[in-house]
Each structure stands twice: as C-alpha cells, then as structure tokens.
Amino acid sequence: MSMKHKFSVIESTCIPMPIDNCNTDLIIPARYLASVTRDPEFFGKAFMHDLRYDAEGKPVPDFVLNRPGFGDAPHDGCRRILVAGDNWGSGSSREHAAWAISGYGIRVVISSRIADIHRGNLLSCFVLPVTVTPEFRDELMQSIEADPDMTVRVDLAEQTVTNTKTGKSEHFEIDPYRKHCLMNGYDDLDYLLSRRDDIEDFERRKNMEQYIEILDTTLRDGEQTSGVSFSAKEKLAILQSLISELEVDRVEVASAVSENEKNTLRGLSEWAVRTGNIGRLEVLGFVDGHKSADWILQSGCKVMNLLCKGSLKHLTSQLRKTPEQHINDIRRTVEYAVKQGLEVNVYLEDWSNGIKDSPEWVYMLTDALVNMPVRRVLLPDTLGILNPDTTYAYCKMMVERYPSTHFDFHAHNDYDLAVANVYSAVKAGVKGVHTTVNGLGERAGNVPIGSVVAVLKDQLGVSLGLNESKIYRLSRLVEMNSGIHIPQNKPVVGEFVFTQCAGVHADGDSKDNLYCSVLMPERFGRVREYALGKNSGKANIQMNLDAIGVELDEESMRKVTERIRELGNKKELVTQDDLPYIINDVLHNDQREDQSIRVLNYSLSLAQGLRPQATVKIEIDGEVYQDSASGDGQYDAFMRALRKIYASLNKPFPRLANYTVSIPPGGRTDAFVHTIITWSFKGKEFKTRGLDADQIEAAIKATVKMLNKIELQK
Fold it and tell me: Which of 14, 432, 468, 655 would be 408's cystine partner, CB 3.0–4.6 Å?
C-alpha cells in the first residue's frame, strides 16, 4: 500500500502536533478500518480526521492541519516531517494508523516516545520514526511555531536530526536491518530477493551431503580466556576476517550482559547489516523473560542462543527450580523472542554431565524443545569431561532419538581431547561444530578452528564452507589482539609445523616430495620451509638459496654451511631472512683465516648504579695483551679497553664515525643483528660489518675486522 522510497537525507518544513499520548484511534478513526481499499489518498484523507473536521464535516480552523502555513499538502521539502507530542501512536496496534500517516505524505515522525508496535508499522510504510529527548522535541516545536518556514534536517546515514534554525543536533537510534532497508528502498521481500544468490548458495551448501556448519565463538567464549579482552575495533576486525575472508557459517559475537557490550555489538551488527550478514551473528541469551531478547534486539542482532540447564544437577542446585518450572520459563522466553522476530537456538548447558548422569531430564527437556520454535539444539561439553568414545555414544543417542533436529557440538579441551571429540561428534551425526581461533577459551580452551577444518576435511571427508587459505592470517590477527601466543608446534598455525629440520627430509622433498602429505601448507596460506642451523645439510641450505634466487660455488657453499652451523649453536633457528646477511658476512668480510689480530677473550659486566665494565684479552702478532676500562655502555667500555692497549703500544687507533644496526625482517626477538660501523683513519673512511645473534658481539666482530684491516695497511 505504501510507496517505496530510498531514504537518505530529508530536509523539510514541519507539522507541529504537540498532542501527548496520541493513540492510533485518534490518528485514524475506527470506522475507516473496515475499508477494503489500501489507496494512499483514501487513508491520507482519514489522517487525524476527527480532529481536522467537526461533526458536520467542516474543517476545524484551530487544528494545525487547517491553520495557515501548515495546511499545505506535504510535498518535496514541505511538511514531510511531523513533530509529535510524547508517547505517539500508543493504544491499539492497528497498522492503518501508519497507512494514514504515509498516505498523507509524511516521511518522518519525531517524538520523545513512539509506541513500539506503531514504530514497526511506520517502518513498514517507509516512514522513519525518530526518538529524541523531550527537551530537543520541545525546542523543535518552539522553532516551528515561531517560524513555520524553518526546516529540520534528518540524516539517516549519520542517524542525526538537526534544527537548522538553532544548529543543534541529536543522534537517534534505529534497528540496523530497518536502516538498511530504508536506505535501499526495500521491504522485507525486497531484502530477501536482494540476497537471492546468498540464499541459494546457503541452501545449496546446506543440502550437500555431510555439510557441517561451523560456528566460531572466539568473540564470546574465546574472550573468556584469562587476560583476554578485545576492544571494539579488534572485535570488528576479527568478525570481518571470520565472515568475509574465512567465510564461517555463523559467529557467536557476545553475551547479553551489559550496556557497554551492547554498544560495542551495535557496531558489529551495523557492519553485518551493510554486508548482508546479520543472520550469521548470534548472541548468548538467558532464560530471563524479556530481558535478553530485548537486549539482543536493541543491539541489532537477530539470533539468540538461549542458555538452559542441560543437567539436573545444575537445574536443582543452581536455579533451585523443578524441571516443569524451567521448561515453562524457557517456553515463555522462546515465544517472546520469536514473536519479536528473533531466531532461537538453545544451549543445554552441562549437557555432557546431564546425558551421563540424568538422561531422563535431557530427554524431557529436548522433547519440549522440539515442539517449540527452536532452530538448533546446542550440545556443550561444558567441563570438557568427554572422550572420543563417550562423545560418539552420547551424540548418537541424541541424533537417533531426534532425527529431524539440528544438533551442534561445543567442545572444551580440558583433557586435550577436543579435536578428537569433534571428530567423534560429527561421525555420530551432529550437523554443526563450535570453534575458536587458536583454541581460545576458559581453562584449557575450546577446539581450535584450524585443527577442526583439517581433521573434518581430511579424516572424515565432510564438506565445509570455509576458505581455509585465510586461517593462518586470522590466527595471527587473533594472536596479536589477544596477547595469547601460538605454540610453535601447534598444528596448522604454529610457526614451525611446516618446517623441515632434518637434512634427509629436505633431500627427500627435493627429489619427489617424499616427506609431504595432504596437509600441505599452501592450503592454509603458508609455505614449506627448511630450517637452517647446527643440523643443516647441503639440501636444506640449497632449498633456501633456491628460494631467494642465490647461487654459490662449492667453496662459498662450504663457508656458508660452516657459518650457519656455527651460528646455529648459539640460537634455536636460523631463518631464510637471515641468509643474505650471513652470505654477505662470509663472502665479503670474513678474514678469519689470515687474521694477525684476534680477540682471545673478553668480559663485560653491567650492574645497576655502576658504569659498565669491560676486560679485553687480545693477541697482536703473536703477543698477548690485556686491559680493563669502564664506559657509557658495554661496547664503549670494550672500545676504551682496546684503546688503552693500543696507546700502551703507541699504535694509532681509528675514530668511530658511525654505527648502524639492522635486523632481518620477520619480527622475531631472536633475529640476527647486522652491525655496520664506519671508521675514520688517517683522513679516510671505511666500513666493517659484524653478524651475530647478540648486538654487542656483532659490534665486536666488526671491530676486530677493522683492526685487521688497518694492520694490513701498514
């Protein structure tokens, strides 16, 4: 019946109607409800009819719609905004009132309170309901009465309403889904049609044999990890990566607990609405009547995961209620949520203990749930007590007893069995699995999404909708934002899980990929690496040289191999990023075989409140000298001790002109340090380099090279 309009910004003169508690019977008299027509002109004439006209059908001169300056029919820029009294649209829920307002030509209704049902009816008619403070509304009324030609500007994108006469603005709230529809001129059907490709893709995936849904709960259960708290921006970045890159089916984003959490969630839901993903966001709610459902609606989300008691012990000891009371409470909560437009899934909290110790309660509860408007039943191993055998047995019991019900399995990792339990649950027939990135979660954590993807696809051959090539990038993002480091040997995402250390493995891979499996690193956005260190063979080093495009002759390869093994004894791993520095150091600066000056030993000390000390023992042309000094730093103390030795021998000593340090890329704290020192000696400058895992030792190596260089110039 209503005209569909795209709504962005409206600036218009206004109609002031300072009638408090104006109910829908006043907006449109009951006698017009019997009409079968939905003609906008018909209902527009009925708008406020009994206040506009007297008993004889004559216009009431004092009523605002008949007063000079306000009686013009609304059109572009003129009288498109109604500024109403408090509690507008109260009373009965008749949708005809919204038809009358729309039919009259009004596009915006501004009030300090608008009845909830009337608000929904206005939105369905493409009329924007705007709620402001009573003070701002009164100021608008006064401005309009003083100057009927003044305008009000309503910006839906920014969610602001502005009094152009005073310049004052207020922010207003609107459901993100309704905002999206208004801005695009969509009714509910139009919105569904705009998502046709996504809906067909979802149905196609859902109907695939053994398609398993993945719900990631990093932003809800994962944030319960001790010490983890994501900021609003971090949550948005993780959500965007989960949905837009990794393409998980569903994301549990929050618990309905606080105003601060609700404000954060609004930002997530607005993004989800803009991108057409609002149905994939789920929020944990509680059996609390209307409270959680209203909280979720106000946050802009559309799916509630209702937390119920899945074990009799939890029910009787924590809630202190009878089974019948709890089921009745659940039913009221579900019915209210669904009536408000929410989709509902139900968690059976402590289900694993419940099905083990009180199966009769689990069945009683599930019998009731399957007769409620519940989309999915979620089976959590809340305390992580299950093993693969019990997981399979208990999940199989549920699936066989309720074959038409969609069950999710929610694992915890207390016995380090979460991945194996997920395997068993899917094998038993559950249709959804809950994960977190990197296995974040309370106590020992939840099941990690990277491992789940690999196991389900490779070991069970099920279909998943995920883009697994994005797993590693997401893993690093969550590691950075959570502050919880990923173990280096963690499957799929650990730093070294695709690194071959043994030379025989590198040799086998170079010949026919003899040490590769279907768990290829490229699947997860990674590459296979070959470790460099004390156990490196020629094949390891050659693989790395090939990767960076460097060729070495046999002698150079021998020297580089020796240096890598030497350096590998000082640290756990030499990386490919270090390799160019090592080659440069060996081939261009290594003069160890013909050195006439050698540092035999040195001792450096650093203590709080004391100047650093250095003792140096050095050999010059076969003679040994030793001295000590203090300095402004450890290297400065080392240099002062050297100068004392050279001064005692009346030998000239260069001046340090510049000192630079660089670290190979990669961001590791154990990276090699490449030190370049510029020296000034007898009017000329030259550079020497040193490479080591320790910055001071790298500088000392560069210094020894300098001493030998000037010795050769004598």
Answer: 432
Measured CA distances, 608 to 418, 605, 630, 631 (Å): 48, 10, 14, 14
What structural domains does the chain harbor?
Answer: 9-191 (3.20.19.10), 254-479 (3.20.20.70), 499-589 (no CATH), 592-712 (3.30.160.270)
**Phi and psi torsions of 84, nearest 5°:** -110, 165
Cβ(693)–Cβ(571) below 8 Å = yes
Which helix (H) or strand (E) segment is 634 a member of? helix 634-648
What does the alpha-carbon distance between residue 310 and residue 382 come to, in Å, rounded to a whole number? 10
Q: How do residues 494-534 score in pLDDT, each as one tens digit?
A: 887 877 664 444 444 444 555 557 788 888 888 776 666 66
**SS3 (DSSP) at 400:** helix
d(CA 115, CA 122): 10
Residue 621 has pLDDT above 70, yes or no: yes
Strands 613-620 vs 623-630: parallel, antiparallel or unpaired? antiparallel
* Cα angle for residues 59, 64, 68 (degrees, 5° grid): 80
Q: Give the active site residue among 94, 220, 526, 640.
A: 220
Helices 259-274 and 291-299 pack at an angle, to 10 degrees, of 50
What is the model's pLDDT at position 473? Answer: 92
Q: Which of 170, 252, 282, 349 is catalytic?
A: 349
**349 in active site:** yes
Q: Which residues pair with 23 in a beta bridge?
A: 90
Higher-pLDDT residue of 503, 158:
158
The SS3 of residue 525 is coil
Average pLDDT over residues 341-365: 95
Residue 261 among the catalytic residues: no
Closest CA to 457 of 409, 520, 414: 520
pTM > 0.85: no
